[in-house]
UniProtKB/TrEMBL annotation:
It comes from the Bacteria. Pfam families: FeoA. Residues 19-97 form the Ferrous iron transporter FeoA-like domain. This is Ferrous iron transport protein A. The keyword Iron applies. It comes from Acidovorax benzenivorans. InterPro entries: Fe-transptr_FeoA-like (IPR007167), FeoA (IPR052713), FeoA_core_dom (IPR038157), Transcriptional_repressor_C (IPR008988).
Length: 109
């Protein structure tokens, strides 16, 4: 992915902006609406990593577990994979919380 790809990535809009991934409760599901813009080169690299491992707009995510003190790291399932994210990384992912009734039959299977 070129360096401009993260800048052109589907950034959240006011209509879809609901919460950050680090604020979802344990076992809660959400749909990725976008990633926050990077403020520096380190955040830019972090955003590219998040994109590469699957945190793309439209993907369903679920908070699986939280670490002990302060809830860091956060175990998050995206697609069929589970990743441990630092709170700082998870805070860059914008999500729309989902309730069980909004999931499609395909996602429940």
């Amino acid at each position: 992915m070129d360096d401009g790809a993260a800048a052109r990535l589907h950034l959240p809009t006011q209509q879809t902006l609901s919460t950050r991934l680090d604020q979802l409760p344990r076992r809660a599901q959400g749909r990725v609406t976008g990633l926050l813009p990077a403020q520096d080169a380190q955040e830019h690299s972090m955003l590219l990593r998040l994109l590469e491992i699957g945190f793309l707009p439209g993907e369903t995510v679920q908070v699986v577990a939280r670490g002990g003190w302060g809830g860091d790291p956060i175990a998050v399932r995206v697609g069929q994979a589970t990743f441990a994210l630092r709170r700082q990384e998870a805070s860059m992912v914008q999500v729309q919380p989902l309730d069980d009734t909004s999931l499609s039959a395909k996602e429940l299977a």
